[in-house]
From TrEMBL:
Residues 506-861 form the PI3K/PI4K catalytic domain. Gene3D superfamilies: Phosphatidylinositol 3-/4-kinase, catalytic domain (1.10.1070.11), Phosphatidylinositol 3-kinase Catalytic Subunit, Chain A, domain 4 (3.30.1010.10). This is Non-specific serine/threonine protein kinase. Residues 1057-1089 form the FATC domain. GO terms for cellular component: cytoplasm; nucleus; TORC1 complex; TORC2 complex. GO terms for molecular function: protein serine/threonine kinase activity. Transmembrane segments: none annotated. It comes from Mesorhabditis belari. It comes from the Eukaryota. InterPro entries: ARM-type_fold, DDR_Repair_Kinase, FATC_dom, Kinase-like_dom_sf, PI3/4_kinase_cat_dom, PI3/4_kinase_cat_sf, PIK_FAT, SMG1_PIKKc. Residues 1-277 form the FAT domain. Pfam families: FATC, PI3_PI4_kinase. GO terms for biological process: negative regulation of macroautophagy; nuclear-transcribed mRNA catabolic process, nonsense-mediated decay; TOR signaling.
Amino acid sequence: MQILGGLATAKAAMLLAKWLGNEPDLFGTLPPEAAQLVFMNHLGVLTQEIGSIDWVGALLSMATKCAPTIAKSHEQLAQWALSQASLQSFISDQAFFVSNYSRLLGPEIATPERLEALWKAIFSSNSLAQLQNAVIVALGGTFASAAEILLKQTVYYTNMWGKMLERRRQLMTMGANSLFAFLRHHDRGMRTSIGTVRVCLQILDLLAHHQDIIHSILENGIQSTDVSLWVSVLPQVFARLSHPSRKVRETLIELIQRIGKISPHTVVYQIVVGASKQMLMDAETEDLVETNDEIAQDTHLEEKSLMFECCRRLEESLASFYPEMVSDVRSFVEELQKINLLLEERWVFVLANIDNEMEKRLTHIRAESEKTLKAAHLGEKERIELVQEKTRLITNSVFELLDDLYERTLNRTSTSVNEKSFIDEHKEKIAAAFETSRANRANPEKAWAPFRQLLAALIQKTARRTNSTLQIEDISEKLSKLNGSKVPIPGQEAIDFAEICYLDRLGKTAWVLPTKTRPKKLILIGSNGKENIFLFKGQEDLHLDERIMQLLHICNLMLRGAKELQGDWPLYEALNYSVTPLGARSGLIQWVIGCTPLFQLYRRWQNRQAQTKTLLNRKAGQATLNNNAPLERPTDMFMKKLRASFKENTIAPEVYGDRSKWPKTILRDVLLELMKETPNDLLAKELWMRAGSADTWWRVTSRMARSSAVMSIIGAILGLGDRHLDNLLVNLDSGQMVHIDYNVCFDKGRHLRVPETVPFRLTPNIVHALGPTQIDGMFQQSCQQALDVFRTGKKVLLTVLDAFVYDPLVDWAAAHDHLTTSAAVGSVNVAVALAVYGTDSRAAGARPIARQMFAVRVREFATPWKENKIELTQAIQHLIATINYEVKLDVQSPLEEAHALQKSRNEALQRMKAAIHAHHQIMKNFRQLLRALSACDPRFSAYTKKYRERFADGVVKAHEAMESIPSNFLLAITVLSSVVETINDVYDGLLSLDSAAPIVPAQSSTISPTNFMAPPGFEDTTPGEQQKQQQNLYARSVNRKVEARLDGRIDGNEPMKCFTIQEQVDQWIRSATSLSNLSLMYEGWTAWV
């Protein structure tokens, strides 16, 4: 077919499509003579070709044929086609479906919820087997016959599904082909743009979610694209290697092999680390709650096994082309893992973490012992036995872990000078501590005392050490001898393979930073002779940091590609750096050169103050302070003022030990006092003094304001926390603000011991460094512009985050630390277990004993639990009878009789309340265990759900009905009757959880896919294979929070209200600068600086 060609025609078609997309009614306003145009004559033909009467799609399709080399037209057609393949585009069909099936199924079955679920089943199922399962879930096992009618006895339902599936297949095929056409015709001068990233992410999303519909289209398209386009989305590509579909994995393996052939430096670390046995073994340490549910327990391991197998194949493939590179990288990673924690660091790290945990456990033991010894329903012998058993369970995992640490560190041959030195110096002391401890295991306080003394001695020795440097030859002989390797220096992904720099050797010295995880600053000397500084960090998962760095890179691409920001100066950008994970909890972080931590500026001021005070004292003839005395830490400064304020306001001493009781007014006063004592222009003066002229100063402060604004908005969207002064760096010459350490991200800061209360850091010193207008000028304007760009590109950001939801390498365990460090469930922190066991699979032996503790609880409380069941049942029945009697009486009852009835009802209600109170007193001994075990055992999760929905919610609802004005007695009777029917299940069900009966999957229906035939062309090609990747539920909730913020919804406000960009920015700024919020921040965050 001949089509009127030309760039002008294509642009006109795209513009008209945009108008009609925004205002569909515009088409009716076209003049009659428009129908005579050649331009319009082709639209009807094109409409038939694409199988739609949608003029927008027809116009976009025409644009791609008029000017095939315009990449933008292909992307717009793809977006239209994929949006038409979504659920929203079939709303008109849904009304017809609901009308028909309401009559067919009847009112009992055809509730609005079930009809909605049946409609979604048609749309979301890509095979007949998926349709069957979705229908059964939608109707529930109770209505299996209705499911059979839909799937077997009528053809309309399956035919409707088949037609919709074919329509979706056509649209997705068009969308996928258009996406690949965009990649073929994009600007070759730009290897990576936000457009190519956006399209590559969409293709990956189609492959992961719809490969069973259009796999061949996607496979052929991916094979034909330029591999350099995929480098920016490699984290998403690797995340999908755990996909359950073999076809998806094979497609991605082939893509990575092509990338590795041309640019091996971009994939070698991910492949080598993913193919190491360590990744598989580390997975076993993450499920720290004991369970009999093998399916739930093995899901994560299975995903990692799939990724391990894929990486193993990729490693073999890459080694066939670059054997020396693969071998050298593998050796380099293994040697770095060995110095992750040196022996002294490992002992201090483990003992310090366990000391805090042991204190909680000892307190817990004392409370448990006191409670058990007072239990009148238990005999004296049984009370003593229960106390001993609980003591053993609560402390056993700690002492077993220490025993293993001793065996693995001291009872083996040393492999380095550093290890030999530690063993020679400390083995006898540690052995003596173990001997004393083992002799007192029956008394946990005495058993832990020698380890506490050992920890104090090790910390004191570390504090006395003035030299924080180590010689590489003392900690790793192999690393010290490394020379002329083929290890690519990390962080060169954007450089062509021919131009990359290799690791020639390591600098002779490593610097140990005095932080909790003891990271080591290393110098990697490249083959070009230049020094590259990296931080080797352990005991933290850096996969999350790596993903955040990629997200910042994509944010920068979005900001550079925004038309409204073109030509603006300074640039809108968030400075990012290289992060290379080398295992489950270690990796290399590129050192940010030329930047100064804000804490260093604050420390300099403190030093100047101390020196000034010394000089003044000398002039006055007073005794001078010790020049070598350490400067006062921010925490000590805060606490000193807090104690003084408590004393001044006569606050009880016991309040000081309970942070939750600290008066907010006093916290605010302490903050204001510290702000008054601390200059608010420390940073502003540094920027002024560095600037050689007013023009330079203006440029520096402008860049400071803009870079701060961009990172503030990104931080607020992502829930970035832990923005203390050491994690904010500034280049004093350029004014560029740089953030580091993204481990406390996605609102983790809100769940710290001292919850964070601000969206980003905007304290006095930052405010005064933003230029003459401070917040109200460039900073606020830049915040609004950045948020506008991110809102517009919401889909891209959410697609990037979507990979987090499925990535088995990203560790979300920190979000659930309350389950893995609880004395009540007897577990051990994951980081501590890894510090002891490293990559050894025996770390799986460090599992908690929550199930054993649950059995002890059942033994301890079974008798009062059964007695409470009888009392609560009788109390509720008595209340129901009393209310029924009162309702049946005539309204005109004498006043005296009415008062008597009300008194009788109140007495019955009080009896029920007393029984419920006793119920909760017993239940609180099980609640934490139930919560922990529900995360891994479906029997416990099913019980918890049933308890909440059928018992607890009913009791609350009945109470509200009786307390309402006027009282709704009929509703209360109905609800309480339902509660009585479930009491046996609730009480007996809890006790039955103690049994270790095998879990048999429920058979929800007898319908089999073989009972009915699929329409021609819709047979299930992979009947035994799962088609979709398992989601990480916590990561999914994170994604929803980010989406809400990009929609304009603000935490703590009306959940459905969407704020404008200006309103959202103003709200965040008010929250960040609020004295009430800042006063609640942890004192180490130094909110006054």
